[in-house]
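# nightly structure sweep
# worker-07 picked up a monomer target from the shared queue
# config: single-sequence mode, recycle default, output format = structure tokens
# input follows
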Amino acid sequence: MQRNFLLTLFFLASVVATAQKITIKGQLQDTARVALPSATIMILNPKDSSLLNYGLSNADGVFEIRNIARQNYLFKVTFVGLAPYTKFIQPTPDQVEIDLGVIRMKPQSSMLAAVTVEGDRAPVTVKHDTIEFNAEAFKTVKQNAVVEDLLKKLPGVEVDADGTIRAQGEQVQRVMVDGKPFFGTDPKLATRNLPADAVKKVQLYDKKSDQAAFSGIDDGQREKTINLELKEEKRNGAFGNASAGVGTNDRYAAKANLNRFKKGQQFSFLGMANNVNEQGFSIDDYMTFTGASRQMGGGGPVRIQIDGNNQGAVPLNFGGRNSGIMSNYGGGLNFNHTFNKKTELNSSYFYNALDHNLLQTTDRTNYFPTGDLTFNQVSRQHNTNQNHRLNTVLDHKIDSLNSLRWTTTLTYNETDAHESSTSQNLNADGTTANESQRQTSSSGSTTTLNTSLLWRHRFAKKGRTLSTTVTLGITDTDRDGAQDATNTFYGDTTQVTHLLQSNVQDTKNNSYGANFSYTEPLGHRMYLEANYAYRRNMNDVDRRVYDLNGDESTLNVPLSNQYSSDYQYHRGGLNFRVNKTKYNITVGTGIQQTYLNGDLKLLNTTINKSYQNILPVARFNYDFSSSKHFRLDYETSVQEPTLQQLQPVIDNSDPLNLSTGNPDLRPAYAHDWRLNFTLFNPTNFSSFFAFIDATYTRNAITTSQTFTEQQVRVSRPVNVDQNTRVTGNATYSFPISKLKSRFGITATATRQNGVNVVNDAESNIAQNTVGGTLRYNFRYNEIFDIDLSANLSRQSTHYEFNTQADQLFFNKTYSAETNLTFLKNFSLNGTFDYLVYQSISTDYKQAIPLLNFSVSRFLLKNKSGELKFTVNNVLDKSIGVSQTADVNYFQRQVTNSLGRYYMLTFVYTLNKHLNPMGNRPRGAMMRIQRN
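# output follows
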């Protein structure tokens, strides 16, 4: 009743407010009577020329600014290449619509007075395949905010707790700064270190490959990319900040960034050190190593996904609640330099070190037709990692027709991991089948070099191009490991085994290749592309396992493995492209021939395989207007088995979880369809993004499980007939200017159908996930803002062999963040997250409230100093929970996490005195200056 009353009251208030509004409309043309689409319409306050409202014209040049207050305005229109048009508007008391008719804008040369516009706050524009957000329209009241804080406010963009960015349902792979790489391809180095107030625009697009961008023929290779366009004053000066904080429980955090940009040169320095789980960089190398170390040590169960992508069963969500305790250190330089009009260098070096402690309990129920099995494990890990990364990209234009691009990445990684665990498997009747106590250690280093050289040539005939790329990759890994395990097997008799082993592994990988592409114009904006690619990948692995007995060590031949593999790929294809004003079409096909020659030296066995596949592709883009786009893609791909998956060698690093290869494994063949629709309404600034992605895989590779009488699991890759996956995502965002608010809603749904193989018996699995996100933002000038969001996910899993094993669980996250500036020199920030993990099937529910707040006092000239007192995790909730339902199991993991601590931090903002142009007060309105 109360809710209905409030809704009715709100509706009546809206009707009354609307009744007092007016609409301004018209049509824009040039002097030749040609419509002017996407022209900028501004409604200004005639007293101080501040921006009150904003809009764009549609494809026919028509514009309409609705629901604005009945008062006097200065109406202004701008269009590239034409003189601005201004008009004073004075509505009558009874006027509800002002029709300006057809406005014909004159060429730039007829402009009598120069006009400078500052502070344009157009929220969103769509330019072909790029969505552009004006940072000024979404900026946060939070002082010293970073780019990540800005991205959280953009419609259709989400930032996970670990800093992973998702835009329109897809993960962002790269963040650029003014169109140039920033510390290689690590998005977090930009989003978690650059200040938000340095950004003018955020551009979101799918970055094509260098070859596709050059030739105009789409090769299907894309990276979801964000480009940060800096403010003009930041491009011609220095900016950055430095902070240092100390807290209770020996907590500390320090970081600094300095950026010096000038014409033709960009220089950035980053540095950080903390033990409060704050990562300003990605740690993929660390994740790769820990997964490899667990496999070598044999720890942990195997996760099986019905989409055929098998991953480790203990995913670590770094930066979130499941991260344990982590100390982070890092620093590096980013240097971009334009030597002249022909030569440009983009380069970066970054070093990071991690020290990680994790305490984790795992409870897992495996569902089988013969009865459910339970796996329980308690593990403690201490891992360290040091990583060096060097990236360089050198572009050189030989002449107007030829250019070169040389790209090189060099990494060096040192790792050390120690784990102790206790685990057991329980039978369906609750009795213990087996148990294990294990201690494992592993250390090693990896050096990787990847380099490529791209040559591009344009012929005199427009559209005719030739390009080629040569690549070289070298990886060298040395790793030592050891395990001490006591395993007990229960049954008619109890058997106890003790393993004391060490292992040494040396892996060398060399690869090289080349590809060629030729495009030929056919006339009428049609093109033909012919391409050919060759790649060779050679591996040499020497793994030796030794049984230890006192000071003696004996080679364990069954567990050791020496092999070499030689993969060769040949692929040729043709693509036909039509490139019209409103649409473009690409259809084509390729033929791929693959050869594998493997030599299992200790087994005196060879594996020789050859595969041939036809890979068609089709793409269709249609631009209804500059703000409405449709895209449909179809492509095929092949997942060929690796030599590790093919070789019949038992890996019993974990005696309770054995694994072996399958020489009869066949390649998986996938068809992928993707439909994408983008719409931005320039009249009311609402936006709508949606996509549907469907994948159908034949001969999908999954992992079968066979259990011995002692409940030891043996995992083996096998082919199943088919897997399907359909994912949909839709995001709608709209502002309510009257309420100074913006609403956003995102709906997602995923349906997967796969095949589970247990004890050689196949059964179908169906998994459905539905959910969505609601977001609300309110901002009052530069004083107060609040963000509210709710993220809900419902996942159900249906098992054909046993409906009683069906799983249903919910993950819910409710979040709030507010920022308040008061008494001129004080600010308050508060965040609250309420995490709910609920399993209906197992009657489990865990709620974790997380409350943080800080208060700041600004000091020094231009508020360049900030003294901040922070309380993190006020309610002292020091656990993290994750739960997963997959092919034949339900799993819950509980990890340690940071508890409550207090911290005092001093922040010094450099850009407030290094840039005279940057000293304009926050919130300065737009001004029009007439000369």
